[in-house]
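User: Can you predict the 3D structure for this chain?
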Amino acid sequence: MKRISLLETAYHEAGHAVVAWLLGLKFQNVTVKPNIDGTLGCLSKLNAPKWFRPEVEMTARTRVMAERRIVVFFAGRSAQEQFLGKQIRSGFESDYDAGVALAAYFCSDSDVADAYLNYCRTVSRAIVRRYWAEVATIATALAGNETLTFSQVAKLIRLAPKVANAESETPRAKRKRNKTGR
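Assistant: Here is the predicted structure, written as structure tokens:
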């Protein structure tokens, strides 16, 4: 089994944190501190409004909130893959399972659920690509500090465009730039 580096974990968790912030979802903190349950990091207490009870009632508002949460669950994998420049095959199962469980409340057919989950994953990849400088800023801070609160993440995201530089490039982009000399 491949060992995942601290920086790789930091990018995974940064993906969750940045996308949650962008979609207006609050959380307590984000960490790369390993947990006794075997996780290498986590986004703690992704808050939901009191009215969000998809197991009881699925309204349009509930579905939108569920979709935001699914996109956040998938953003960790999206950021990790963007950082590595390749697809990953493991390490995101609990995130995926959480997304599937939410989608099951309003996707009654497995083909519809598969298509919908693919859509949510595509949305998460697009957001991560668009806000890569912010993801890189949070990942770098996480690698150095282990844990960031929601307000620390928000402050760093607001500063990210000003501090983004070549260090925020993915390894694949750096190799390509070095080959072409640009």
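Residues 60-84 form the longest helix (25 residues). The chain has one domain: 6-180.
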